[in-house]
Amino acid sequence: MSSDGSNPISKASFNSENLNPLRRATSGVQQPKQDFDQQRTKEAAEQFEALLLHQMFKSMWSSVPKDSLLGNSREEEYYQDMFTEGLANEVAKGQGIGIKEVIAKDLLRVQSKK
Fold first, then answer.
1. pTM to 2 decimal places
2. CB neighbours of residue 54 within 10 Å
3. I need a labelling partner for 29 at 20 to 30 A (CA). Which of 6, 19, 60, 107 fits?
4. Tens of pLDDT along 12-29?
5. 32: pLDDT confidence band, cut at 50, 70 and 90?
6. If 0-12 CB within 10 Å is exposed, 13-18 middle and 19+ buried, where does residue 94 land?
7. Which of 101, 113, 114 lies closest to 48, judged by CA?
8. How many CA atoms lie within 13 A of 28 on its CB side?
9. What would the DSSP string read from start to end of 36-69?
């Protein structure tokens, strides 16, 4: 504001038509954001599949009899959980069981409607 209380940039001097070249120049900037969102969606779907596989593997381990050299210790449970989590992550990174593709496709379809 100037010393007399008026705004030095009046509304009359601001012309929105001057922004059109700027809008045209930046219109292509939206594409990387969309690609980034697609990548993040695919990563989220992969993480969900890994989580699902981890739960499935834990259930499978619970059906195995508990006869161990370590004596069913808490450390063995920690190791087994870390192993199962790593296995689930590696399976999901690879071909997986097909859930991540279905989830990613559905999420991307929903995002494209926004």
1. 0.62
2. 19
3. 107
4. 555 555 556 655 555 655
5. low
6. exposed
7. 101
8. 2
9. HHHHHHHHHHHHHHHHHHHHHHHHHHHTS----T
Q: Are 108 and 41 in contact (CB under 8 A)?
A: yes
If you count DSSP H runs as helices and E runs as strands, how many of each does the chain have, helices first?
Answer: 4, 0
Instruction: Answer for the pair 52, 99: CB distance below 8 angstroms, yes or no.
Output: yes
- The domain ranges of the chain are 16-112
Instruction: Give me the chain's average pLDDT, please.
Output: 78
- Taking alpha carbons only, the member of 2, 100, 114 closest to residue 52 is 100
CA 38 to centroid of chain Cα atoms: 9
Say if residues 83 and 25 touch (Cβ distance below 8 Å).
Answer: no
